[in-house]
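Reviewer 2 asked us to include a model.

Predict the structure of this chain.
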Amino acid sequence: MNNESIRNLIDYETSGAKFFAGFLTAFIACLIPSRVALKVQPAEALRAEN
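Predicted model (structure tokens):
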């Protein structure tokens, strides 16, 4: 392997890591509001019943 192919391999790995980190961040960002909504909803339902 010459230096150029090593550099391309490193670029590919870091871009893959960035993509994965971005995907994970987006996944967590979508997950948190749904969890908050699930926690809030039962409290509102109890309040409506009383």
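The chain is about 95% helix and 0% strand. The first helix runs from residue 3 to 49. We have added this to the supplementary material.
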